[in-house]
Amino acid sequence: MDIGALNELFAIPGHLHFETGEGGLTKAVVANSFATAEVYFQGAHVTSYRPAGQGELLWMSKTAQFGDNKAIRGGVPLCWPWFGKQEGHAQHGFARKSLFTLFGTSVNAQGETVLQFGLQDSEATRAVWPHAFMLEYRVSVGRTLGMELKTTNAGDVTFELSQALHTYFAVDAIENVRIEGFEGNTYIDTLRDDAACIQKGPVVIGEEVDRIYEDDGQSVTLSDGTHRVAIAGSGSRSSVVWNPWIAKAASMADFDDEGYKTMVCIETANARKDARILQPGESHTLVQQLIPAAP
Ligand code: TA6
């Protein structure tokens, strides 16, 4: 649908309009009394969330690539219908490279701007992943950023789902980052042959980190001395913390070499043994909410 038709059908004065963004891709531009945000239709990808009077909460790579069938580096990629590597297929699935349909826009009772995107199975998706599905994604922009990813098994066979809201957070300086809330939790260290470890104290980042935490539904708090944001999730018992550090950042063309100094990923997931089995007709919703607070 072209920009004119989108604005005709879905724009909301004082809340939302549509523009052509980077790489000629269509994006929704939210500006309400609580915050601004941007969501690309490619991957239903939130690339910006800036609460009123505060700085940008999400990190975007300076060398991020925007184009058909490309995953955008930064913001909130949707890793779906699998998290991680899958023999013979692109890591983290195909949703983040797919063009979503906008099903609706509204203002809810809290005055938040709400966008509802969807993705259904197609010949192309079934060639990669042989299942019928309905994927619905609701983004709510207000004093908090709410993201709800609902998967429905629309077929007649059971399938396994693993996924993540792979959120890239902007931080002033990685050496000041503390992530509180995982203390005492078990985590898998994917950089040490999936060694099982226990988190002692807050998570601090001074090297490459790629961990999958067992998550008992507690919210975690990211702080760096200026930004402070609480991350609440539901429908998840696993969270991922990732920073590529120097070498890995330099090895990725769409990740600017110095970018590791100003970002950390905290991802609300259904990863590894937290993958879910959906029976025909069954649904599962993964939710992440970002709650910015003064430092
Ligand atoms: O979430 C952590 C992770 O699985 C890392 O292992 C790293 O691969 C990161 O995701 C980024 O993956 P991507 O496919 O977006 O380059």
Describe the structure.
The protein has 3 helices and 22 strands. With 295 residues, it is mainly beta. The strands form 4 sheets. Strands 5, 11, 12, 14, 15, 16, 19 and 20 form an 8-stranded antiparallel sheet that branches. The radius of gyration is 18 Å and the shape is globular. The mean pLDDT is 97. Bound molecules: 6-O-phosphono-beta-D-tagatofuranose. Residues 71, 84, 91-92, 166, 210, 240, 242, 265, 267 line the site of 6-O-phosphono-beta-D-tagatofuranose. Residues 71, 84, 91-92, 166, 210, 240, 242, 265, 267 line the site of 6-O-phosphono-beta-D-tagatofuranose (TA6).
Keyphrases for this structure?
single chain; 295 residues; mainly beta; 8-stranded antiparallel sheet; binds 6-O-phosphono-beta-D-tagatofuranose
Helix share of residues?
under 10%
The small-molecule ligands in this entry are: 6-O-phosphono-beta-D-tagatofuranose
Nearest-integer average pLDDT: 97
* Strand segment count: 22
Please give the count of helices: 3
**Secondary-structure element order, as H and E?**
HEEEEEEEHEEEEEEEEEEEEHEEE
Q: Termini distance?
A: 42 Å
Structural shape:
globular
Assign the structural class, choosing from mainly alpha, mainly beta, alpha/beta, alpha+beta, or little secondary structure. mainly beta
Described by strand count, sense and barrel closure, the largest sheet is: 8 strands, antiparallel
Instruction: Give the low-confidence spans.
Output: none
Our Rg estimate from Cα atoms comes to: 18 Å
| Estimated share of beta-strand residues | 35-45%
